[in-house]
Amino acid sequence: MATPPTVLAAEPTSTSTPAAALAPAPAGFPMGPLLIAVISGIVIATLALGSVAYWLLRSGRLPMQGKASVRQEQVAPTPTHVVALDPLVVNLADAGGNAYLRVTMALRVEDVTGKKGASESNEKSGDANASGSVAEVRDTALTVLGQQTSTELLAPGGKEHLKSQLKAALAAHDPDLKVVDIFFTDFLVQQ
């Protein structure tokens, strides 16, 4: 019978031992570059967040609670009163001559203060102001209204255009009369 093969034993070496392979490396992990990277990352993140916060504060998108508010000069509202005019009926400038307008309007007018000759009875009786009377305002309104056509008045924005024309005509007729707004309380166009 055959003899079993012989096993030759290897000579032990210092690098082939299992204990040497599992031992930690004697030169540790370099901490200097890691520490520099962490600190520079914190500085960059802080600068980025600070610049974004600064931009938001300066643009007004992020209000500050403790910030002293900028004092805005408040303009006192100008005292006004409303002058209601009697109904006006006027023929319109249409080609056939059959169209007319019946309108009742009220004017919001700035109060006349500090004018010489302004009497309280004049303002209480409904006059537009001390320098102009209701008759002058009605005459100017009738002149402007008589130049309109029914298609202009019935068009979209026709009333707003008429208001701007009336304001301009009243300001040209009497510069002391400050018409703030015009209200139509009755507006009828007959064609």
Describe this protein's structure.
With 191 residues, the chain is α+β, with helices and mostly antiparallel strands. The protein has 6 helices and 4 strands; from the N terminus they run ααβββααααβ. It has helices at residues 18-22, 31-59, 120-124, 134-146, 150-154, 158-173; strands at residues 80-84, 88-91, 100-110, 179-190. A hairpin with an 8-residue loop joins strand 2 and strand 3. Helix 4 packs across helix 6 (158-173). The model is unreliable at 114-131 (pLDDT under 50).
Structural class: alpha+beta
Helix/strand order, N-terminal first: HHEEEHHHHE
Quote the beta fraction.
15-25%
Q: Helical stretch count?
A: 6
Which blocks of ≥5 consecutive residues have pLDDT under 50?
114-131
Measured as a percent range, the helix fraction is 25-40%
Tell me the overall shape.
elongated
Assembly form of the protein: single chain
Number of strands: 4
Distance between the termini: 137 Å
How can the largest sheet be summarized? 4 strands, antiparallel
- How confident overall, as mean pLDDT? 79
Over all CA atoms, what is the radius of gyration?
46 Å
